[in-house]
Amino acid sequence: MTMEKPLIALTMGDPTGIGPEIIAQTVAEPAVAAVCRPVVFGDNGAIARANSLVGAGREFATVSSVNEAASLTGPAVPLIPLTTLADVDMAYGQPTAASGDAMYRYIVEAARHCLTGEVDGMATAPINKEAMNRAGHSYPGHTELLAELTGSDEYVMMLAGERLRVALVTIHVSLRDVPSLLSIEKVVQTIRIVNRDVGRYFCCRPRIAVLALNPHCGEGGMFGDEEEKIIAPAVKLARLAGIEATGPLSADTLFHFAVQGEYDAVVCMYHDQGLIPLKLLHFDDAVNVTLGLPIIRTSVDHGTAYDLAGTGRASAKSMIAAVRMAAAMAVMRNTGVAV
């Protein structure tokens, strides 16, 4: 029996950035059509302008509901228009409070349909946090908003490509603050969420590498004792819980083995420890995956790129990868078969 392709919501993001353009390119990509049924949550005017600009050649059909989108036949891509923005609110590189509110609405509606199960997952285009906050929606970003919408207290940022997945214990903090933010509980929580969701969406029993914080794993305490006091005890607790975690491992050598396929995910202590090797391998096609939510959410691994907005030169590779990954995650969750 052939399973119906998953329905994936694409949120348009900032209408003054490259979001509409990369969505127009993404839904025209045969590799996307082969694995899912996309439905766009956005603005008719912004999408029409972007579609004309990039010349992707895929038509959009305005629909009023997800049910209508799911039943749509033919080559047109369903678009649920949640806003009707004025030209001033779509001026390239000049986000307004109205465009900030629009970004918020696209996310909220897509998340709501994910929670009801009407769509199988969501892939998000980039937003402008300042504009969203100016509209009265005070969130540092997508992740915190989605955590609130889904009632999630624990979540993990994972960046992923075909060859490497990295998950972060700490994210956007000063490097000098990282040691004080680490704890046995925080590292165990991260390992646990990675184990559960990588196992749910990517492979059945993930092999998880847990990195040291300091060079050479602290060299017996000469370069720091976080390995001995925090990371090693956390790994031990994870293993006692039945998780296949190994560490602490030295970051300067571990990634060589991870990209050879010896590990399914790498738990990193801070942002650049994981993102430097990830972006070296997957600069164009890395995907941001939020673990710990009750829904599937992937995103591009870049910003609004105002310098490229309106030029038609923005690359859609990360958005294409994000949609394809959301679809693969949905299939794995629904069938237990990795694709």
Supply database-style keywords:
339 residues; 12-stranded mixed sheet; globular; 17% strand; alpha/beta; Isopropylmalate Dehydrogenase; 13 helices
Descriptive report:
This protein has helices at 19-27, 30-33, 44-54, 66-71, 97-116, 129-134, 142-150, 178-181, 184-201, 226-240, 251-262, 271-282, 317-335; strands at 7-11, 37-43, 60-62, 77-83, 121-124, 156-160, 165-168, 208-211, 245-249, 265-268, 287-291, 297-300. It has 339 residues and is of the alpha/beta class. It has two domains: 7-152 and 293-335, Isopropylmalate Dehydrogenase, CATH 3.40.718.10; 156-278, Isopropylmalate Dehydrogenase (3-Layer(aba) Sandwich), CATH 3.40.718.10. Strands 3-4-2-1-5-12-11-6-7-10-8-9 form a twelve-stranded mixed sheet, with helices on both faces. The radius of gyration is 20 Å and the shape is globular. The chain starts with 6 loop residues before the first strand and ends with a helix.
